[in-house]
Specification:
homodimer; about 5% strand; 22 helices; about 500 residues; Neurolysin, domain 3; mainly alpha
C-alpha cells in the first residue's frame, strides 16, 4: 500500500500490528462461536477457518518488513512505544522460528483434536483420544525443535506463556509447595457439606448479582453456558465469560468469579493500547493471579460472604434454609481432595498442577508413553491426594488443554495462585481492611487498585518486572503458604 | 509458499480460493456474532475486524498471481472446473477495478452506519441517519465510477447481485407488474383478521415444528432471535437462521419459512464444491426465489395448512380457538396494504420494491436529495398503496439495506417472487399434486426436486442459464401474475 510505505517506521509497524490484532480478534470470535454457538457439523469448516487465519497472521507477521521496521525502531524514548517494539521483537523472533505450515497444522489439528477430546471425555474413552494426543505431542516436539539453543525443551513452552520463566524455577517453587501442601492436606479438619439441589436459574441469578457488584456491565460483557468455562475478548470492550451451571453444586458461582478475574484484567487495559499486542494481560500467570484473586481471595473471604450470604440463602431455600453463614463459609472453603482440578479447593489445587507439570515433562522426554497415561495418572492421584480415580473422564481426560496443544501452560495456574497472594498483600497494605468493604458489597477500591497497578498496563511490563514494580520482590511462594496456613489452621 | 508454486495451476488456484472461502467464513462468523451475540460496545472493534478481513481478502484476490492462473486455465474440459474459472474471472475482473482502500472503507463505514441506522430507527430519527446515508451513497458513487464503460450506473449494482441483469429488463418486468398489481390490489376482498396475543414461546415451538418437517437438523442448523431476520452460512454444514418473534402477530412463522428457504439452498449445495466460490447460491434473485417459495408457495398453500393448522391451533387456544382453517388461511393470505415491506402480502410486496427501485435510481442520478427522502417516500406510499406512513421508523428507515451500502439489491427480491412461480410450475409438472403431499406433512419430494435442479449446483450455472435449463424460458412475469390472479380471484 502506497500510503504505508511513505509513513514513518513506527506508524507502519503500528498499522501492521493493528491489522494483526483485528485478525486475532477474528480468530477469537470464531473460537468463541465454536464453543458457544456452532452446530456440531460446522466443526470441519471451522477448523479450516482457524487454520487459515493462523497462517495469514503468521505470514504477515514474520515478514522481512516487520524485521526491518523493528531494526529501525531501536532505542525509542516513549516507554510505551519502546515496550511495543520490545514485545513485538520477542514475538517476531519466536514466530520466525516456526514455519507457517507448522503453525497452520498445529491450529488445524487442534480444532479436530478438541472435538475428539469432547467425544472421548463424554464416553470416558481414552483409547479414541490417543491418536489425537500423539499428533499434538508430535507437533509440539517439532515446535520445540525450532528452538535448538534452549537446553531444556520444556523451557521453550514455559517461556511462551510466562516470559523468562524456567523449568528449574518452577521446579523450585513447586518442590517448596509440595513440602507444605501434603502435610497441610493431611491435617485437614472435617467440614460441613452442602447438599443440593441448587436450581440452575437461581444460580444464574446469583452469578449475575455477584458480577454486577464486581462491575460487570452488559453493554460490554456477556455470559453464556458452556461445558468448560472460559473467558475471551473477541474485541476491545467486548468481554465474554462462560460458566457451567450444574444443579448438584455451586461450582458455577466460583468459576464465574474466576472468569470475571480474567475478563476484568482485559477489560481494564488502557484503551490507548487497543489494536496492539500490548492490549492483553502480560502473562498467563499474571492472568491467573487475577482469576484466582477474584475467585478465592475475594470470593472465599469472610467479608464477601458477610455481604452475599444473605442474598444467596433465599435463592436456595431448600438447600440453604437451615445452613448458617459460618457453616456455609466452611463448606465452600474446605479442603476436600477430589479428582477434578477445576473443582479443587485452594490447598489441593497445587497438587493437581504438579501432577500435570511432571507428566508433561515426562511425555516430552519420552519416559512416559501416551498409552500408559491413564494408569500413571490414577496411581499418582492416589499418591498425592489419596483418591481413587473412577474413570478417565474424571482422570486424564478431564482437561481440554492437551487436545489444543497447550503443554507448559498448566504450571502458570499454580504460579498465578502464588502471585495472587503476593499482590493481595500489597493491596491490603495500601487499602487497609478489604474485608470490611466486601462486607458492604463494595469491590470498587480493590478493582481500582488493580486497574491502576496491574490491568491498565496490559503487556507494557514483562511479568517479572510488573511483579517487582508492585511488590518489590520476585516470585515467592511464602505469602501464599502463609495465607493457606492461616486459613486452614 | 514453496509447495504452492510447484503445484499445477488449477491446484494453486483452488488453494487460493479455499483460503479466501475460509476468510469469507470468518467474516460471516463475525457478522452473525455482531447481530446475535455481541455486546453493543464491541461494535467499534468489530468494524475494524470486518474492514481488515475485507482488505486482506481483496489484496489476496486481486493479485497478479490469480490473473496469471486464470490465464493458464482457459478452456478446461471439466465443466465444474470451467465454471470455477469463469466465475473467478468475473469476480477477479470486478475486484481489480475496486481499490483495496475503497473496499475497506465501504466495509468499515457500513459497520458504523448500520449501528447508526439501528439507533435512528429506534428513535424514528431520520436526521441522525442522513450523514451515514450520504457517506454510503458517496462510496457507492465511487464504486460505480470504477466501471466507467457501463452506460447505466445502476446496471453496475444490479449485475453484482444478479449476473447479466439490466436496469432496462427490470424496468420492463416491473412496469408489467405495476399494470396488474395496482388494479388487483384495488379489487381486493375484505378478509378476516387475526387478533393475538400469540405468546412468543408458543410461536417458537410452532417455528421448530415447521422447520423440522421441512428438514431442519439441529446438528447443522440453529435459529436465534434478532430484530431483523436473516440467514447465513458461516461455514459449510453450518446454517444459521434468525427470526423476530412478536406476540402481536404470526409474522415470525412466515419469516422463519422464508429464511429456511435461504438456508436450505446453501445447505444442499454439493459438498464437493465446499471452500470454493461455487459453494453459494448462484444469484440474489435465485436465492430469493427459494425463500419466497418456502414462505409463500409452500407456507401459504392450502395443503400446508391442512397439515399444520391442527398443530398450530392448540398452541394458541385464546387467539385461535374459535378460528376455523378456512378463515385462518384467508387471514394469513389476505391483501392488506401496509407500511412495512417485510410484513407485506404477496400482492402488495412488489409495489414496496418498485418504490425502492425508483428511489435508488433517483438518488444515484441526484434527482432526489437524501434529506427529501422521507417526504417523497411517504407521498409515494400513499400513491401506490393508499397508506399514510405514520413515522420514518415505519417508512424510509424500516430497512437496513442502505445502511450497509446495499443499493441495487431490492429489485432481486421481486425478481425472486417472479422466478419462484416459474420454478414452481416446473416442479408441479414433474411431481404432480404437491398440496396433497403437504397436507400429509410431506415436503421431502419438493426439497429433493429443488436440491436436484437448483441447490446442489451452487453457482455452477449463472442465473439465466439455470433458469433456462430448468424451465426452458427466461425471466417471465406471467406465471407469477397468473398465480396471483388465481389466488386472489
Amino acid at each position: 500500500m502506497t500510503f504505508a510505505t511513505a509513513a514513518p517506521p513506527l506508524e507502519r509497524l503500528k498499522a501492521i500490528l493493528a491489522e494483526l490484532a483485528d485478525l486475532q480478534h477474528a480468530e477469537s470470535i470464531a473460537d468463541w462461536d465454536s464453543r458457544v454457538s456452532m452446530p456440531p457439523e460446522g466443526a470441519a469448516a471451522r477448523a479450516d477457518v482457524v487454520a487459515t487465519l493462523t497462517r495469514v497472521m503468521h505470514e504477515r507477521f514474520v515478514s522481512d518488513e516487520v524485521g526491518e521496521l523493528l531494526g529501525a525502531l531501536e532505542g525509542l524514548d516513549d516507554p510505551t512505544d519502546a515496550a511495543l517494539v520490545r514485545l513485538t521483537r520477542r514475538e517476531w523472533e519466536r514466530a520466525r522460528r516456526v514455519p507457517g505450515e507448522l503453525a497452520a497444522e498445529m491450529s488445524h489439528s487442534a480444532g479436530i483434536a478438541v472435538a475428539a477430546w469432547d467425544k472421548a471425555k463424554a464416553a470416558s474413552d481414552f483409547a479414541s483420544f490417543v491418536p489425537h494426543l500423539e499428533r499434538q505431542l508430535e507437533l509440539k516436539q517439532r515446535y520445540i525443535a525450532c528452538f535448538p539453543e534452549t537446553e531444556t525443551p520444556y523451557d521453550v513452552l514455559l517461556d511462551e506463556y510466562e516470559e523468562g520463566m524456567t523449568t528449574a524455577e518452577v521446579q523450585k517453587v513447586f518442590t517448596r509447595l509440595k513440602e507444605e501442601l501434603v502435610p497441610l492436606i493431611e491435617r485437614r479438619q472435617p467440614a460441613p457439606e452442602l447438599t443440593g439441589p441448587f436450581p440452575v436459574e437461581a444460580q444464574q441469578r446469583a452469578n449475575r448479582l455477584v458480577l454486577e457488584a464486581f462491575g460487570y456491565d452488559p453493554a460490554a460483557w456477556r455470559i453464556d453456558e458452556t461445558p468448560h468455562p472460559f473467558a475471551s475478548k473477541p474485541g476491545f470492550a467486548d468481554i465474554r465469560l462462560t460458566t457451567h451451571t450444574d444443579a448438584r453444586d455451586l461450582t458455577s458461582l466460583f468459576s464465574t468469579m474466576h472468569e470475571f478475574g480474567h475478563g476484568v484484567y482485559e477489560f481494564d487495559i488502557d484503551p490507548s493500547l487497543a489494536r496492539s499486542p500490548l492490549a492483553q494481560g502480560t502473562s498467563s500467570a499474571l492472568h491467573e493471579s487475577q482469576s484466582r484473586m477474584w475467585e478465592n481471595l475475594v470470593g472465599r473471604s469472610r467479608g464477601f460472604w458477610r455481604w452475599f450470604y444473605p442474598k444467596l440463602q433465599p435463592l436456595f431455600p431448600d438447600a440453604l434454609g437451615t445452613v448458617d453463614e459460618e457453616s456455609f463459609l466452611q463448606a465452600v472453603s474446605a479442603i476436600r481432595p477430589g479428582f477434578i482440578r477445576g473443582d479443587a479447593d485452594e490447598a489441593t489445587y497445587g497438587l493437581h498442577i504438579i501432577l500435570r507439570f511432571e507428566l508433561e515433562q515426562e511425555l516430552l522426554a519420552g519416559t512416559v508413553e501416551i498409552r500408559d497415561l491413564p494408569e500413571i495418572w490414577n496411581s499418582r492421584m492416589n499418591d498425592y491426594l489419596g483418591v481413587d480415580v473412577p474413570d478417565d473422564a474424571h482422570g486424564v481426560l478431564q482437561d481440554m488443554h492437551w487436545s489444543i496443544g497447550l503443554l507448559g501452560y498448566f504450571p502458570t495456574y499454580q504460579l498465578g495462585n502464588v502471585i495472587s497472594v503476593q499482590l493481595w498483600e500489597r493491596a491490603r497494605a495500601d487499602l487497609g481492611d478489604l474485608e470490611e468493604q466486601f462486607a458492604r458489597g463494595e469491590f470498587g477500591q480493590l478493582r481500582e487498585w488493580l486497574r491502576d497497578h496491574v490491568y491498565r498496563h496490559g503487556s507494557i511490563y514483562p511479568p517479572r518486572e510488573l511483579l517487582q514494580r508492585i511488590t518489590g520482590s520476585q516470585l515467592d511462594p511464602e505469602p501464599y503458604l502463609e495465607y493457606l496456613r492461616t486459613k486452614f489452621a
